[in-house]
């Protein structure tokens, strides 16, 4: 496994599911890891678990990624504790209820776009300011996208638009900041059964929308599941100093060929 010895990584939405798997992988590779989440119970559990093994190698902070002041506080705390920030992984996300645009409430639209798109915008903005002022300057941003980033009918309207926006944000950031030493990459992930994103379904589902999406593609089966450990290893690989600049601007499909290419 690649080494991340001495690097400082910020991972959003990382007190459980995919984010926690990414955090564990970077900790195992020697990185300093900063985890934020909105769920205080999950953060407390992470503190208890990692405190026994990683001691001063990690920091947790309750953070709403849609709040610019909270994001600034997170990045400042990471830099204060570890001296710099090298990597940002924009993992925090919520799912919609599969509502098509005509049935999507303004409340749901705002909630999903706020977390999934405004969140990465704010964290990227604040992280880049930190990347530019530290010495040596530079860093890497990995955005967690989805099949819905490039397929228009893989979820409801709000989630699809949010994840398409993440892909556009990745390319825009890569284009301007690549020459300044900042690499930005997106991972467009397929079906995963070990994440917390299905927490969103507690609000209910638009069954007609869900069934229409399901009927438009091949059925999801256990063998199509993308293991979160594999995603975490790939994130680590992408932060290698030789790989990140070469992958700058890439939006990499990582979905076990489901739905079929």
What does the model show?
With 261 residues, this protein is α/β, with parallel strands linked by helices. It has one domain (8-254): NAD(P)-binding Rossmann-like Domain (Rossmann fold). The chain contains eight helices and seven strands; from the N terminus they run βαβαβαβαβαβαααβ. Helix 1 (17-28) links the parallel strand 1 and strand 2 (32-37). Helix 3 (68-82) runs parallel beside helix 4 (106-133) and helix 4 (106-133) runs parallel beside helix 5. GO terms for molecular function: oxidoreductase activity, acting on the CH-OH group of donors, NAD or NADP as acceptor; quinone binding.
Descriptors:
single chain; 261 residues; alpha/beta; Rossmann fold; 8 helices; 43% helix
List the helices and strands and how they pair.
Blueprint: E1 8-12, H1 17-28, E2 32-37, H2 40-51, E3 58-62, H3 68-82, E4 87-90, H4 106-133, E5 139-146, H5 157-177, E6 182-189, H6 207-215, H7 228-238, H8 243-247, E7 251-254
Secondary-structure element string: EHEHEHEHEHEHHHE
Number of helices: 8
Give the biggest beta sheet: 7 strands, parallel
- Specify the CATH homologous superfamily: NAD(P)-binding Rossmann-like Domain
Portion in helices: 40-55%
Characterize the overall form.
Answer: globular
Task: Say what the CATH topology is.
Answer: Rossmann fold
What class would the helix/strand composition place it in? alpha/beta
Number of domains: 1
User: What is the CATH architecture annotation?
Assistant: 3-Layer(aba) Sandwich
Intertermini distance: 29 Å
Summarize the structure.
It holds the Pfam family adh_short. With 261 residues, this protein is α/β, with parallel strands linked by helices. Helix content is 43%, strand content 15%.
């Amino acid at each position: 496994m690649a080494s991340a010895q001495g690097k400082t990584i910020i991972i959003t939405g990382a007190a459980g599911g995919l984010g926690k798997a990414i955090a564990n992988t970077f900790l195992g590779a020697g990185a300093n890891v900063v985890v934020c989440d909105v769920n205080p119970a999950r953060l407390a559990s992470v503190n208890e678990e990692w405190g026994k093994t990683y001691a001063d190698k990690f920091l947790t902070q309750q953070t709403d990624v849609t709040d610019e002041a909270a994001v600034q506080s997170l990045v400042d705390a990471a830099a204060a504790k570890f001296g710099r920030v090298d990597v940002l992984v924009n993992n925090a996300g919520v799912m919609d209820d599969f509502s098509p645009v005509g049935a999507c409430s303004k409340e749901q639209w705002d909630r999903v776009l706020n977390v999934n798109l405004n969140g990465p915008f704010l964290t990227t903005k604040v992280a880049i300011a930190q990347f530019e002022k530290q010495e040596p300057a530079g860093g890497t941003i990995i955005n967690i996208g989805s099949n819905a980033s490039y397929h228009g009918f893989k979820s409801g309207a709000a989630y699809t638009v949010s994840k398409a926006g993440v892909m556009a944000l990745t390319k825009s950031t890569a284009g301007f900041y690549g020459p300044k030493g900042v690499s930005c990459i997106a991972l467009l992930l397929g079906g995963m059964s070990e994440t917390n994103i299905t927490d969103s379904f507690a609000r209910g589902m638009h069954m007609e929308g869900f069934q229409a999406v399901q009927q438009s593609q091949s059925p999801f089966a256990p063998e199509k599941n993308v293991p979160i450990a594999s995603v975490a290893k790939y994130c680590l690989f992408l932060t290698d100093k030789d790989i990140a600049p070469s992958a700058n601007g890439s939006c990499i499909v990582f979905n076990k060929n489901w739905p079929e290419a």
